[in-house]
Design goal:
Order of helices and strands: HEEEEEEEEEEEEEEEEEEEE
Strand order of the largest sheet: 14-20-19-16-17
Oligomer: single chain
Radius of gyration: 20 Å
Number of domains: 3
Largest sheet: 5 strands, mixed
Amino acid sequence: MRIPAGTAWITAALVALSITVYAQGALFYCPMHPEVTATAAGTCIRCAMALVPGDPYDMREYRLEVDTTPRAPKPGEPVRLRMTVKHPSTRGIVHDFATVHEKPYHLFVISHDLESYDHVHPEAQPDGSWTVDVTLPKAGDYRLFSDFLPLGGAPQVIARVITTAGFTGDLVSSHASLVPDRTLQRTVDSMAVTLVLPEGGLVAGREESLRYRLADARTGAPLTDLEPYLGAFGHALVMSEDTLNYVHAHPVELLPHTGADDVPPGGPSLTFKALLPKPGHYRVWTQFKRHGQVSTVPFTISVGSPATR
């Protein structure tokens, strides 16, 4: 978790709030809505996810070590990523993680130019590390965003950079230069997807709605047979052009938590909520599942300043 410069008072306030929360005995919280706390295990009153033990206001960042095999990954060839999470105080390897959206560890592999995107799920190893094999499509720098929740701590998003063999550029020359899409429509696999933004445009610093309309790519009929993917009808990752700001969002249209195996299909409209921290251009990758196939739909959007909107 990154704390911007000049916000020490916010950190102090959160620490004070953390002390108050623990003093009141609230030892469980929702991974997606950390403001929802309780004194015993249960489910979130907003999204029905299982509450997890920990402190949602603990600002400490866990330590993350990343190794690659081979050490210098070759573009177009498989590379094994190994991540080891260590406790910020004890430096011991962390073994216990909460399952969030059906997985204990979400890893996003994104090229520095924001042209390549992969969402994978490392597997736990006996030594406490997590491994996954990926293929980096071209030479360059890649950011690895580890998204996980250590039991007893707060949700973590930790970024690390790896570089392929044969890359002769640098972080400046490979920096993304995004151009907002003129038309927010895409046809991907069997789906025609339209992104609808708020009237007047997106504004930095406030929670905004990203609404998707989905139709069958062949017939144009509204799509009503989305399937659950990782505990939701969709997953969206929003990344700023400089790759320093990251939002992982899910639809407000929730899956029913009845315990039944049969889940009513989703669509044709889904809304994601996201707070985009600063003006600029952002790349959005949203994943939907239909007919057993997971499809990734990219868009580039612009976020304005509150003073200009």
